[in-house]
Design brief:
Six copies of one chain form a homohexamer. The first copy, chain A, is 30% helix and 29% strand. The first copy, chain A, contains five helices and nine strands; from the N terminus they run E-E-E-E-H-H-E-H-E-E-H-E-E-H. The first copy, chain A, is of the alpha+beta class. Chain A has helices at 78-81, 86-100, 126-147, 178-181, 212-238; strands at 15-19, 27-33, 36-45, 59-66, 112-121, 160-168, 171-174, 186-193, 198-205. Chain A has a five-stranded mixed β-sheet with strand order 1-2-3-5-4. In chain A, a hairpin with a 2-residue loop joins strand 2 (27-33) and strand 3 (36-45). Chain A starts with 14 loop residues before the first strand and ends with a helix. The A-F interface holds A 22-25, 28, 35, 37, 39, 41, 43, 45, 63, 65, 67-74, 77-80, 82-84, 88, 114, 116, 118, 120-122 and F 22-25, 28, 35, 37, 39, 41, 43, 45, 63, 65, 67-74, 77-80, 82-84, 88, 114, 116, 118, 120-122. Chains A, B, C, D, E, F: Residues 13-141, 158-225 form the Exoribonuclease phosphorolytic domain. Chains A, B, C, D, E, F: This is Ribonuclease PH. Chains A, B, C, D, E, F: Homohexameric ring arranged as a trimer of dimers.
């Protein structure tokens, strides 16, 4: 069995990270995982949502969207339909949860960082690319808060990155593109931090159930891929 | 460390399953997992959604809701607010996906079974109780289709059940109630079928990441709990 | 002419009232009128809507819903459709108005009691059963406010109950079930208090108009039925 | 006790009916009951709603609105708020039901008449004025269908009119204006047809319950008022 | 080429302005431009929108609507559809902008005037008639603020009026009615003040582009028409 | 008076046009006007909206959006708010109208081209940049229809481009950036085609009215700027 992209089972796609992609946001990153391209911006506000008022802590939240023609056939624009799909809401809840795991909300003070992840071109793995890219934009936003003297300590606990794994034609594989994702037997998204701790695991069988053995093989691939992504994040932040 | 409920780490709550709980639906089940109580009904319609028209297969879909005062403090009624929350949509997508894994949609013919899971009392684990209860209601609905001669084969592939596991004060535990769930370090929902195949795994770290070792311990507990639930389902169906 | 249920013209269905039906609400009642089953909960909040702020009085309000498969064929879930139907709004306005007539809002202090009436099984008369059941839940909520010392006096003026009457095949009858209701010439809902005062009368001709004589016969039946319901409420509260 | 308007207890306000008030609709009536002014238009469509397709009958439906500044203080525009209030929906359901009682839907053929009742100035009794005015607009629309040869028989069964009655400072009174309506102990809307048959009775106690005796006195007033309104309708149609 | 209405190219329709058309609003005008009839009311509130709080200035805003059967065939009611069309929003933004140009918002103090323009009969030019009529209603509302002593200076800078011009069958014409508007090659709405200053110009080619020469001819017509309308406004205000 | 950007009054910003910017759409253009950046995609569908079914013609329509942090401070995401603002609707109606003027809809056959204009970075003039960029994407989509043999003739009538002009500190200027636009006395958007025909003129006074002389000066600037943009479009299409 070979993969449509001819990649090795444990080979992820080429990652390209462009910081300061747009000019207004406190953090702005274009992340490309192969043909998947997502603009991740981090916006800082010096207040918190109502449910956190006066609790002496900050908040990290995320929103996700796809341009209508980021995909093979045009999707309805959610703003025109008047609501976000269940999928969109599920993804933006996942991104927000994952990035909150990277931050000490007390050390952030009563500030909110909103991460907007907008997919301009989709080829599988948009939610995991969003997490990986948004983490860098978030770090840039945190650094700007520090430089402006708004916060003194460092709320960043650990870098966070994410990747998808799956079982494709019986073979556990890393970083599925759309051609694989749309026919894979199992699709799993994994979020981890730089120390190897697990933050989210979401695995779904599509048509065929998966075994504990397959699950372990997928998690091994995810660990490898996430370590490489965290390396790429660090290089981008150091450049 | 002891659990608030004094249960053993691998001990699930008492399960009670009442079939034919209401009189109109083709399948109607009240499932109680301790103090969590969910009414699961299965409704049959002799048509399919537009995207499946003419494809010679059926469809399984789910909707989920909580009565406003099923919880400790009253929640807004989603019908009055005019939209379902992201959490609600995430849960009903999970229920639908899980139950589709139990069914051969071709053998169902061009029929739709809608599973309504309405929580009348909540004490943690409402989404997993919904899956476990809805599977029984779905079987009753499938049996009614067979008895009415609408379908000839048996679309049921395997019973499906679900349970939550987590890490509570450092200890992997089975079937968290609200007291545990609201303070657990990790919360994981697992859906499996009667043959032990995995259908969904959704694990989330809350504040502290989890390790591969903890993940394995949680999956062991889930396998045990789900086997017991499938036993309870069978007893209910045989009674 | 005989009724589908073989009941006498002036005979209401069996009423069963279960207090403390669910565990979280300040008042929680399952009321069954024959096959019609409604969960009525009363939730207390120590504030009032904006239009009453600072006026030294409380508020009683109601919401109503039907589980999608409480009826013979499945109805759309209002939360999924994104709005409550005109019928739902009409009913919840009626329930709220009726129960406010039972209470001295000044004596309630700046507290709000929200009555949620959720139909789990429908066989006609769901709005009147909701009023009769919600009144008991409301009394339990008022008693809890008194026991917690939040209010000193007694805001309860009078018990309130409701029943439907109609003209079925030319005969005035009490407490219509669905089989009668769906073909009756006239349908009338009556709300009264324990002293026999009238709170609401809503009569509608369906295809054939009704006369003053028929109206009087229906009101006589309603008076009898409501007196019996108030008796049943008292027994439930005393048990 | 005297009425704010100095009218006798059984004296209704001056009624003025202007047919052909606007030029596009098949029926267009401005009805004035004292200072209450409502534009009622009847629009004909040669089709029926989906639930009536192929059943060989027509449909009558109604919509109701108030201009934002038809009232003493400006109300939000429902189109801008994005939904109709419960009160609006209740009223338009009442208007539609009342006018369907005036028509043989079979004789109407597969045509729909939509009655739009838009209040341009409000001083109490807008829903009853809407019914009385819309009935005339509907007759004009039916006559246009007959003149165009679309229908051959006469679907009009009987003229329908409506008026409000109430108990004001202990005295049953006819046709309440806003000054009375806002402080009355009981408010009742009555819809009847030209033969004296009752179509709708909706009575509501506001703070004080009402007795059978008061109810009868109110219904006597309503019968008198509606007979006068039907007279006024006939004069308008004959002019 | 002659116009459907037989008017001269530079001849506008008959304008009729009725002040105090309804009784509740601080300003209420019925404006008729031929068969186009719009009720314009001005409502005063002693507060400003949130974005202006504490800035020591007032606000002018507008809302626009059409009765469903103001047009040749019935349109959906926007309140029932649950949203205002893009056209409606575009028009009400235009009306608000145009009238703000007539007022010194500082001199208005922290008061808001809301202009509701409701079309009861449409025959082309409803947005321009709305601006012309609303300006008079606004003046009446400003005068009432002055008479009540709420404001001392005069916030009115200049009267504002509007008219449509277009190219119809190659000929620049003034004040298009529906018969012309629906087939014109160019449609242009012009808003000016009493001193001849231009406030808004919105020209649109429909099928055929227009030239600078045609544009100038249209603007000449607009200047003439607006001067006549401002004359008519003054007469109405002086009567 | 000098411009914030130090540009000459008749000097537009640098224009950069990148074709094939994303990979899925039939036409995909990134247009940059200085710091304003808009992704314009053209999507082809082989059907038409309902109101054009069977009329033997095609349709061009447009949607517009801004990424939440395309601007200096983050805006709410319209998909999350559940509706498009009036400004958004106004702009997308303008884009659609403008591009329909460039096409012979009969020659397009029963196909629809949807133009999505998504602003990723905003610095004034986003609507005019959208029109200029979308026209190129539309041409690419039309060429793909011709290459696939779906249509035989050429529906493109003329290239269309747009630019903003205004009066800034008393001086007519071309192509306002945000610094100018936010304080200009007049803002005017002009759409023209390659033959110099005018398609749309939308001029708005902000605080100070404008004269016919200023209007003519602005239109002269617009003619110059649009000629240059059409030159740039041609170069991009030829490359």
């Amino acid at each position: 069995m070979s993969r449509p992209s001819q990649r090795q089972a444990n080979e992820k796609r080429l990652v390209t990270i462009t910081r300061n992609y747009t000019c207004h946001a406190e953090g702005s990153v274009l992340i490309e995982m192969g043909n998947t391209k997502v603009i991740c911006t981090a916006s800082v506000e010096d207040s918190v949502p109502r449910f956190l008022k006066g609790k002496g802590q900050g908040w990290i939240t995320a929103e996700y969207g796809m341009l209508p023609r980021s995909t093979g056939s045009r999707m309805d624009r959610e703003a025109a339909r008047g609501k976000q799909s269940g999928r969109t809401q599920e993804i933006q809840r996942l991104i927000g949860r994952s990035l909150r795991a990277a931050v000490d909300l007390k050390a952030l003070g009563e500030n909110t960082i909103t991460l907007d992840c907008d997919v301009i071109q989709a080829d599988g793995g948009t939610r995991t690319a969003s997490i990986t890219g948004a983490c860098i934009a978030m770090v840039d936003a945190i650094r700007s808060l520090q430089q402006r003297g708004v916060i003194s300590g460092d709320p960043l606990l650990n870098m966070v990155a994410a990747i998808s794994v799956g079982v494709y034609q019986g073979m556990p594989v890393l970083d599925l593109d759309y051609a694989e994702d749309s026919t894979a037997e199992t699709d799993m998204n994994v979020v981890m931090d730089a120390s190897g701790g697990m933050i989210e695991v979401q695995g779904t069988a599509e048509g065929v159930t998966f075994s504990r053995t397959e699950m372990n093989a997928m998690l091994d691939l995810a660990e490898k891929g996430i370590a490489e992504l965290i390396e790429a994040q660090q290089q981008a932040l150091n450049s």
